[in-house]
Amino acid sequence: MAPKREKIKNESDPSLGFGLKNEPSEPINATDMEKTAKCIYWFRKALRLHDNPSLMHAIQKSQYIYPIFILDPWFVQKAKVGPNRWRFLLQSLNDLNEQLIRKNSRLILIRGNPSAVFAEKIKEWDINLICFETDTEPYAKLRDQEITKIATELNVKVETKYGHTLYNPDYVYKKNNEKIPLQYQSFVGALAKIGDPPKPIDEPSNVFNKLEIDYDLYKIPDLVSIGIDPSACGPLLFPGGETEALRRLEDKFKNESWICSFEKPNTSPNSLAPSTTVLSPYLKFGCLSARKFYWRLKQVYAKRKHSMPPVSLEGQLLFREFFYYVGAFTPNFNKIEGNPVCRQIKWDDKPEYVKAWKEARTGFPFIDAIMTQLRTEGWIHHLARHAVACFLTRGDLYCSWEKGQEVFEEYLLDQDWSLNAANWMWLSASAFFHQYFRVYSPIGFGKKTDENGDYIRKYIPVLKTFPAKYIFEPWTAPLEVQKRHNCVIGKDYPRPIVDHNVISKINISRMKKAYEESKLVSTDDGDDKKSRPTSSKSTKNPPKSEKTSPDTRPPSKKSKN
Ligand SMILES: Cc1cc2nc3c(=O)[nH]c(=O)nc-3n(C[C@H](O)[C@H](O)[C@H](O)COP(=O)(O)OP(=O)(O)OC[C@H]3O[C@@H](n4cnc5c(N)ncnc54)[C@H](O)[C@@H]3O)c2cc1C
After folding, report:
1. Where in this chain does the record put each Photolyase/cryptochrome alpha/beta domain (predicted)?
2. Ligand 1 atom 18: residue of nearest CA
């Protein structure tokens, strides 16, 4: 149960790191001496007008605002972004543009390296202020340092606000005596001492002053013009953008009893319609503010009895917060090497295993169905992520979580640097979660919530008519049954890549050995520095496991079908 929070004044308390004055209610006034700036407002995440502290700051400070988004070639060429996420991004930008048009403005989309773009546009537009939302990811931090340097040299101020999570991580860090808890419960305890997160601010009520600019030069591209084949996209289940984010949020909140009784363990990894909110892609791109979601929950919780963290929806948002926080202060958080919170496990190097897993060819229909849903639709349920992540790493294939992280990076709509890395470490029992002996069965786990295998039938059509009795392990069906249903194993659908019962036991002993070889100095995560894994050869017992796991439906102690 989460500790009770102290009430504090919030949204206008600058110490929380947001530092906003009240929203201006007057139209932007050219004679206002406070507002002489020509400001570039740089959208990166936070693709929204509602509850956008850095945008509001820019509005408060400036007479003219140039709202830009930079299509950075680094992302186009180097980042692993699949077609579905590109589509989501472009839809979000188009929606943002529509929102800005309502405010007498428009989105200015510029293709290019951010440093070059700023060097040019500061001069061209005679800019004296740049505002954007602070980012905690390593690439973004370096990029932002570079922009700040360029701006400072040109005598231009850079002013930023934090806005992507419930709390400003720097503020929590200070308040928590610079400690980084590695357990959710400790982190939630630290937040409870701080008090509630800031309340969301409304979208700006005023309209922007008109710019003299040729918008035709700055149009939002379509998929084809950035080299993406639209036919590579899957069905459009979750359109991008703030409008859709707010619609989806309100749609979920229509059913208040569902919201209040939400318990992650009681949701299903393989229902045909999502059993959780699917607000994650909107939170990832900042189409939806996490604080808006949080305070909407509080509003409904105030009226009736409700579930509690870690299993409640509030608990889910706190997991996001937790992983963002640890990610913001941990070097090499998305890597094994040089990552002080990650156990140094020597995983096998088997590219053919990773490829089969990625391409949904493991021969385990539950795993392959999930990987098909991931590739085609871009979103899979949290426990489905558990099943495939455990399978790739400590459960069956013993491949590095970094490889799985890469595939998720490419396919997920909600791919989020900190969250992806943290959850992969969790599932591979490399950090946060230590019960490596609890392995998901690629056969039995899915059966619990989908006895008839309807989810498998949907995503693996070759098994569509297979009898329910065999659908989770089709290789056990007699040949005549396989033939009758036009799916001969080894010909029409692969044989299982490993023998789960055998390999999972071997892997548990490999994990045990790996744990013995990398002891934790202390399991008291009150002091982060003491609780980080080392590569010492000591054979201490594995650390006490995390009590509150997002793993909400723990698999049986020994791997079983
Ligand atoms: C291996 C693995 C990789 C993952 N990678 C990502 C990722 O890149 N991006 C991402 O947003 N989530 C990731 N998750 C966490 C989680 O699976 C998704 O956030 C969740 O399934 C999104 O669906 P939802 O919006 O319906 O969640 P809901 O259950 O409705 O929860 C509401 C919100 O809480 C947050 N949340 C819930 N669970 C978690 C969690 N375990 N960690 C962090 N935030 C959480 C999300 O923002 C989510 O939208 C990963 C999980 C695993 C096991």
Report:
1. 37-166
2. 382
Q: Which CATH architecture has domain 34-163?
A: 3-Layer(aba) Sandwich (3.40)
Residue 10 phi, psi dihedral angles, 5° rounding? -125, -70
If you measure from the C-alpha of residue 284 to the centroid of ligand 1, how many angstroms do you get, rounded to a whole number?
10
Instruction: State the helix-helix crossing angle for 83-102 and 242-253, rounded to 10 degrees.
Output: 90
pLDDT at 35: 58
Which architecture, in CATH terms, is 351-531? Orthogonal Bundle (1.10)
Tokens representing 380 are 């899979």
Neighbours of 11 (CB within 10 A): 18
Pick from 247, 274, 248: which is nearest to 262 by CA? 274
**Contact, 218 vs 361, CB < 8 A?**
no
| CA pair distance 387, 381, nearest whole angstrom | 10
Of 543, 532, 73, residue with least CA distance to 333? 532
Question: Which pLDDT score, from 0 to 100, does residue 535 have?
Answer: 40
Q: Which residue's CA is the closest to the ligand 1 atom numbered 51?
A: 423
Residue pLDDT, tens place only, 214-242: 999 999 999 999 989 999 999 999 999 99
* 96 within 8 A of 47, measured Cβ to Cβ: yes
Q: In ligand 1, which atom is closest to the CA atom of 282?
A: 49
To test ligand 1's pocket by mutation, which of 414, 417, 546, 551 has the most ligand atoms within 8 angstroms of CB? 414
Tell which residue, 287, 285, 268, 284, has the closest CA to residue 276: 268
Q: Using the mean position of ligand 1's atoms as its centre, give its distance from the Cα of residue 561 in Å.
A: 26
- Of the candidates 2, 422, 421, 431, the residue with the CA atom closest to the CA atom of residue 190: 2
The phi-psi region of residue 201 (left if phi > 0; otherwise alpha if psi is between -120 and 50; otherwise beta) is: beta
For ligand 1, say whether the CB of 283 is within 6 Å of any of its atoms.
yes
Q: What is the pLDDT of residue 481?
A: 98
* pLDDT value of residue 539: 28
* pTM to 2 decimal places: 0.90
Counting every residue, how long is the chain?
561
Residue numbers of the chain with a pLDDT score lower than 50: 1-33, 521-561
Report pLDDT for 75: 74
In degrees and rounded to multiples of 5, residue 130 shows phi and psi of -125, 130
**Nearest-CA residue for atom 6 of ligand 1:** 420
* pLDDT, position 26: 36
Tell me the domain boundaries of the chain: 34-163, 351-531
Q: Are 278 and 240 in contact (CB under 8 A)?
A: no
Contact status, residue 357 vs residue 457, Cβ threshold 8 Å: no
pLDDT of residue 34: 52
Q: Is the CB of 428 under 6 A from ligand 1?
A: no
